[in-house]
Write a structure and sequence with these properties.
The protein contains five helices and no strands. The chain has about 100 residues and is mainly α. The protein has two domains: about 1-35, no CATH class; about 40-95, no CATH class. α4 packs across α5. The chain is elongated and about 65 Å long. It has helices at about 1-20, 45-55, 55-60, 65-80, 80-90.
Length: about 100
């Protein structure tokens, strides 16, 4: 991401210098390092959390909705965040 933003800023800087654009909207933008406030980071689930999520009662409660049923398994086995896979499950087509 950092490399891509740097390239975009360079192109826009050139475009401003040459008069193609009046302002460089990428000027001054920085890409975070992902080492933000520890309070904002997501912690991995521990064994107790996983037991709650995949207990027989929790699985049974999610059976009404295919997305609610399958997304936790998909996230567990792929390591993907569930929110990123919702489109793939709800519209029946694989995500790009």
């Amino acid at each position: 991401m950092k490399k891509t933003m740097g390239a975009l800023a360079s192109v826009l800087s050139w475009a401003k210098r040459e008069g193609y654009v009046s302002i460089n909207v990428a000027e001054g933008i920085t890409v975070g390092t992902g080492k933000g406030d520890p309070e904002d980071r997501r912690l991995p689930y521990d064994t107790n959390d996983l037991e709650k999520l995949f207990s027989a009662e929790a699985v049974e409660a999610r059976k009404e909705s295919p997305a609610n049923y399958w997304l936790p398994y998909l996230a567990l086995f792929t390591g993907a965040r569930a929110a990123g896979r919702v489109g793939a499950v709800t519209d029946g087509r694989p995500a790009p």
